[in-house]
Every structure is written in structure tokens, then in C-alpha cells.
């Protein structure tokens, strides 16, 4: 899809296969997450949601060596407290919307994903890393904390101790370590975008309502006591059987054919 506004000059998107959209960020030199790139990601999400048939969104960078370097520090240096609040709200809104999207999402990273850039990647359902991927939340170096979901999402992925180590030291985590501790889900020596798109094709073959229910129930395991989480799991399973795509899945299994999910 062609860029139409300034924000769409730095964020573009295109259909790659049935049910898959590829969103690309390109704001040199490092994809700093200023208002333009955030508006662009919002626009991409608007389009994907309006289409109604997107099952997987892949988010990547067109810049060599960078996924996204984080908040726009130059922008921060020029704003007052009220504008800082608004900017933070804009960053959080993008991440929260991505995390709650009616489709799955994959961040394809083969460069630096720092600060807000890592927070953006963590808001995705999954993360695929190339060997050059490097991850960090260095906000303490400028007297701040990760304020766009980083302090909440990172411990859920890697545990409290590792999350504290990463945030307190402000260090960069190399791709191999990120994979070992669960910060990224797939590690490839090849092209991270190609790997992410291949993963997206596989995911798009399954039932999206069931996949989204998996995400919700796994998230509930962190939010609810075990007994309440188990009850939530039962409710999700029952809903899928009554109103989801279970009937087609079961029928296809019996008939020994591929299911025709929406």
C-alpha cells in the first residue's frame, strides 16, 4: 500500500499472503519512535483491523542494524511535562493496541531493539531474531524507566531476576542469550524477516479464534490465581466449542482433510 501522509512515509505495509500483512518501519537513522512512526504503526493497525481477514501481522525494519532504537531523545529534550505525558501515552497506546489486536503479531528483529523498540517488540505475540539482534532497556542511563510496558512485559517473558539484570545494568542482550532466556521465540542465522514470514504462514493455517484464546488463557496464568485461571480456561474452551471454529476442525479431522478455517 502506498504511503499517503508523512507518517506513512516512515511506516508502510503490504499483503504477503492470505491473511498476512507485513509492516515495515523506515525512519533513518535508527527508527527512533517519534510521533510520525507511532502514527504510522497506528495507521497500519487501522488498515489491518478494517480489512477483517488479517490473521498474522509481521513487524520489521527496513534499516540495516536497527529494529527501533527507542524513544526519540531529541523530541524528549524539547518538550514539557504535559507533552511528555502525551508522548508516553502515544507510545503505550501503540503497544497496548498491538498486544490486544484481533490477530497475531510477530516482530522480526535483526539489529538493535532498545528501549521503546524492545517494548514494541515485546508487545507482539512472538519475536523472531536474526543473529545480529541485540536487546536492551537502557532508560536508567537517562534517569528514566521503561515506561511503555517494559517493566511489566519483560518479567513475564524472562522472569524477575533476569528482567532486573537487564534493566538495572542497561546492558544489551545478544541474540543468542535472548533466545536462551525466552526473550525471543525463534533465532535464525538467516534472514529474520523471511523466517518471520514463514512462521506467519504456518500460524495462518490454524484457527485464529483458538490461537487468540491460547494467548488470553496463557496471559491469565500470570494475572489470576490457579483456580480462577483454570475456570477461565474452561470458559474459553466452551466458547470455542459453541461459537468458534471447533466444529469445522473436528469435522475436517474425521474426514481426513485440511480444515477450512475463516
Automatic annotation (TrEMBL):
Keyword presence, Lyase: yes
Taxonomic placement: Bacteria, Bacillati, Actinomycetota, Actinomycetes, Kitasatosporales
UniProt-listed InterPro entries: ClpP/crotonase-like_dom_sf (IPR029045), Enoyl-CoA_hydra/iso (IPR001753), Enoyl-CoA_hydra_C (IPR014748)
Keyword Lyase applies: yes
GO biological process, one term: fatty acid beta-oxidation
Name of this protein: Enoyl-CoA hydratase
Reactions that this protein is recorded to catalyse: a 4-saturated-(3S)-3-hydroxyacyl-CoA = a (3E)-enoyl-CoA + H2O; a (3S)-3-hydroxyacyl-CoA = a (2E)-enoyl-CoA + H2O
Pfam families: ECH_1
Family listed: Belongs to the enoyl-CoA hydratase/isomerase family.
UniProt keyword terms in alphabetical order: Lyase
GO molecular function: enoyl-CoA hydratase activity
Organism of provenance: Streptomyces albus (strain ATCC 21838 / DSM 41398 / FERM P-419 / JCM 4703 / NBRC 107858)
Domain of life: Bacteria
Amino acid at each position: 500500500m502506498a504511503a499517503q501522509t508523512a507518517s506513512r512515509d516512515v511506516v508502510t505495509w503490504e499483503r504477503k499472503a492470505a491473511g498476512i500483512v507485513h509492516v515495515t518501519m523506515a525512519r533513518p537513522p535508527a527508527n527512533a519512535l517519534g510521533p510520525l512512526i507511532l502514527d504510522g504503526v497506528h495507521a497500519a493497525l487501522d488498515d489491518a483491523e478494517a480489512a477483517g481477514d488479517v490473521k498474522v501481522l509481521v513487524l520489521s525494519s527496513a534499516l540495516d542494524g536497527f529494529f527501533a532504537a527507542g524513544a526519540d531523545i531529541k523530541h524528549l529534550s524539547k518538550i514539557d511535562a504535559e507533552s511528555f505525558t502525551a508522548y508516553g501515552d502515544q507510545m503505550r497506546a501503540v503497544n497496548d493496541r498491538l498486544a490486544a489486536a484481533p490477530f497475531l503479531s510477530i516482530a522480526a528483529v535483526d539489529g538493535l531493539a532498545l528501549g521503546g523498540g524492545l517494548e514494541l517488540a515485546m508487545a507482539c505475540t512472538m519475536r523472531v531474531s536474526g543473529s545480529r539482534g541485540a536487546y536492551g532497556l537502557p532508560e536508567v542511563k537517562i534517569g528514566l524507566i521503561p515506561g511503555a510496558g517494559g517493566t511489566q512485559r519483560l518479567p513475564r517473558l524472562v522472569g524477575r531476576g533476569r528482567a532486573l539484570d537487564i534493566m538495572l545494568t542497561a546492558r544489551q542482550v545478544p541474540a543468542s542469550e535472548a533466545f536462551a532466556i525466552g526473550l525471543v521465540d525463534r533465532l535464525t542465522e538467516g534472514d529474520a524477516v523471511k523466517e518471520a514470514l514463514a512462521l506467519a504462514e504456518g500460524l495462518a493455517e490454524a484457527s485464529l479464534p483458538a490461537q487468540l484464546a491460547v494467548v488470553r488463557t496463557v496471559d491469565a496464568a500470570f494475572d489470576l490465581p490457579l483456580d480462577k485461571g483454570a475456570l477461565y480456561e474452561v470458559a474459553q474452551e466452551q466458547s470455542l466449542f459453541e461459537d468458534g471454529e471447533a466444529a469445522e476442525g473436528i469435522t475436517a479431522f474425521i474426514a481426513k482433510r485440511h480444515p477450512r478455517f475463516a
